[in-house]
Amino acid sequence: MNSIASDSYVVHFKEKAYNALNEHLKDANYSKIFILVDENTHDLCLPLFMAEINGDYSYEIIEIEAGEIHKNLETCAQVWEAMSELDADRKSLMINVGGGVVTDMGGFIASCFKRGIPFINVPTTLLAMVDASVGGKTGIDLGALKNQIGVINQPQMVLVISDFLNTLEERQLQSGFAEMLKHGLIKDKKYWTELQMLSNFELMDDFIYHSILIKNEVVLQDPTEQNLRKILNFGHTLGHAIESYFLESATHETLLHGEAIAIGMIMEAFLSKELTGLSVKELEDIRTTFLKRYKKIVFTEEDIQAILGLLKFDKKNSHGNINFVLLRSIGNPEIDIKIPNNLYIKAFDYYKV
Question: Where are the domains of the chain?
Fold first, then answer.
């Protein structure tokens, strides 16, 4: 499987990933290597990863608590303090071994420490492999508001090793699969159809590769998200608001990213039918596909109003406008669409049916 060049770095796969890492470590002469993990990847992934590293290097393992709720400035400060106490300098390297929380936050931590040290991302979840692996987005949440603080900064390399998927529960795999379905919806109708027919998560390498190719093609054309890259946010305007609401709710179970985005994609597909010409047939195809895989969530009127109140914090907003990515058809998106207020409730009603 060929490596994928993305801007200033390369995404390597499987055995080539370890070979590329070992060559890089041998040549780079880092003063110290810091490996960031959470409590899950520390136990399940780190031993597999360390067993493949050749050479005698100075390592420090830093473990954080798992979960989106810990993707915040407080955790960053704890890691920065630990790095300082462990004599990190500007010639140190950070390797982030984990899901999207670890890679997003680890990249941000590295980008800010001593005005920036190099980092390598090793995504261990399906979501992180197909989403966080490309684009250089790093960041943390502000309270329950997703990814409000961060920078775009590229890693030295990304290592996609699908063996780590064997450590995941079905729910985590389904969460990542939602982003893959999104790639089909925004860029490749044939891919969307192929993913619909997938009955299990075995032999995923080719699908992961194709998703990374799709995202990489978009990012290379618009690295700082001025225009085209916005299409990657389909389903995320409402989806992020839903995710944030459930994250801070004391009465609702927290939703995984892909679970919230799946709901967002159903609702934003409905808005697409209303505003940008998505056919009823394709709308129903989208709705049916997601509801087969993701548990339906019950929203009260209070929930809906709170979620809509969070839309003003979406990162795509500008000049006071809430900007949506909608579909003209499957594989054919349109950016910067304004939504009439009366359609928000109709979108929730469509999801409820």
Answer: 4-167, 170-352
Contacts with 162 (C-beta within 8 Å, 6 or more apart), sequence order: 13, 14, 129, 204, 205, 208
- CA max distance for the chain: 63
Assign a CATH topology to domain 4-167.
Answer: Rossmann fold (3.40.50)
CATH number, span 170-352: 1.20.1090.10
- Identify each DSSP E strand in 32-118 by its residue range: 33-38, 59-64, 93-98
pLDDT tens for each residue of 134-168: 999 999 999 888 889 999 999 999 999 999 999 99
Q: Is residue 16 pLDDT above 90, yes or no? A: yes
Q: For residue 254, count other CB atoms closer than 10 A to its CB.
A: 14
Beta strand residue intervals within 167-285, DSSP E = none
The angle subtended at Cα 168 by Cα 149 and Cα 157, nearest 5°, is 50
Asked whether residue 294 carries a pLDDT value surpassing 70, the answer given is: yes
Closest CA to 13 of 134, 107, 117: 134
Least confident segment among 35-44, 244-253, 340-349: 244-253
Would you say the C-alpha torsion 161, 167, 173, 176 has a positive or negative sign?
negative
